[in-house]
Amino acid sequence: MKLTPFSTTLKNGVSALVREVTPTDRHLLEIGFAHLSGRARYFRFLGTRKNLTEKELDSFTATNSPDHVAVGALLRGGPTPEPIGIARFIRLPGQKHVAEIAITIADQYQHQRLGSVLLGVLAKFAKRSGITEFIALVHSENTAMLGLLHKFGGVQTVLSGEEIEVTFPVSAISAQIPKSTADKCETRLQPPGQSSTGRQLDSAGL
After folding, report:
1. Run of H or E including 88
2. Please, what is the angle between helix 179-188 and helix 114-128, to 10°?
């Protein structure tokens, strides 16, 4: 199953290109990470981080499969590609119908519905892979993310002082995202040719 790249317009009028993440995108992930604020990095990794490790870059840019999908957004109209968002899911071992998600949006493009678009694309991939439930690990102070996932019927479980696990049905995402976005994702998911898991923290700002 492949996603044909498509454009989407954010609430602020900015145009972004949404496409799958590939192994050639390592430099884009490094650029995107460098543009994150310290708070966004902390929410994503639950600790202070200066850079991504080689192992993380390998994992984050792995070729998509039924068990792992990553999609990203690039700002359009600039002289060079600028990564502004990324979302992924990883199917949990031994739980074929459950996948863990992580979403990170560049600070200046948060609250522009980009996260919702990326989450909608993940939901389409998940449905075709037999995944019916998403799990997200969210920092307890990340009220924006917690509030959004609550709209999807998210059930919260406190794991430790700063970590909250939220579970919600994949079907709820399709019901919440705009119909035009859902239709766009559906028409651009093509049948496949030929085409683990550490916990993932979600960043702020859908």
Report:
1. strand 82-92
2. 50
